Amino acid sequence: MNFQKIFLPIVGAAMVAVAWQAYGWQGAALAGGALVMFLLLHFNRMMHVLRKAADRPKGYVASAVMLNAKLKPGVNLLHVMAMTQSIGEQISEDGAATEVFRWTDGSQSSVTCEFSKGRLAKWTLYRPPAPDDAPPPAAS
Fold first, then answer.
1. What is the pLDDT along the chain (140 residues), one digit of tens a residue?
2. What is the pTM of this model?
3. Long-range contacts of 57-62 (CB under 8 A, 24+ apart)
4. What structural domains does the chain harbor?
């Protein structure tokens, strides 16, 4: 059960109730305005991230290695999309308990992220093997 889905509305209602008790309808209006401003800021951020992601190819990231270094457990999908500026290529089935997304860069390196309950649970970096026909490094 997601604690925030229950806790945040209760805190918002309590904030309006306390403002009502302390300052009357003006306090309730101020508290309600603060709650609406908070919701609008989050909605604006989500729309900004999705607008940037819509302009990029699906599942593409500039550098999979850098994405791997920046990821932290517990962040949500929107945060990862803000880092990659791209919507991930969905690997898992629709409606699965664990959602799996992949981002690939130009060198075919990829990061596969698993989200459990909307939060990043684990991720893996895949780097393709180096070609065998590469010339050996020059000795100095």
1. 567 788 989 999 999 999 999 999 999 999 999 999 999 999 999 999 999 998 889 999 999 999 999 999 999 999 999 999 999 899 988 888 899 999 999 899 999 999 998 899 999 999 988 776 666 677 66
2. 0.76
3. 57/86, 58/86, 58/87, 58/88, 58/89, 59/86, 59/87, 59/88, 59/89, 59/101, 59/102, 59/103, 59/104, 60/84, 60/86, 60/103, 60/104, 60/105, 61/86, 61/103, 61/104, 61/105, 61/111, 62/105
4. 3-52 (no CATH), 56-126 (3.30.1450.10)
* Tokens 């699965």 sit on residue: 96
